[in-house]
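Lecture 7 notes: from sequence to structure.

We start with a single chain of 121 residues. Read the sequence below before looking at the structure.
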Amino acid sequence: MKKKKITKAILKKRENRLVKREYKAKLDKWKKLVKEKDDFTCQICLKDLKDNPRNCHAHHILDKKNFKQFSTDIKNGITLCYFCHKVGPNSPHMNALFFSDFLNKKRPEQYDYLMNLLKNI
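Now the structure, written as tokens:
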């Protein structure tokens, strides 16, 4: 049986898979903690989502692609139902201005914390 030579490219692929797996585990923990922090309740419509976990979403306020350094910060998360998260007229994905204003008025400590993070970048 021929042994496969371990190249730098193979080692790099293995390392990348490990990093992705560790990041996914951190995100899964983040999601759980955000939902617990908000008591499994949509913060826009105030719907109780304890009995409907598939409808319970943890949303990154500062998106995780552009602000990866804040992707596991609990204060960068908010619990939303599917409708308020993805498709509703006031969802953060459909109406960022409403969502920013909502955070500023309803969750000023969280809003100020995130704004200070952005100022320090």
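Residues 41 and 48 are 5 Å apart (CA to CA). Keep this in mind for problem set 3.
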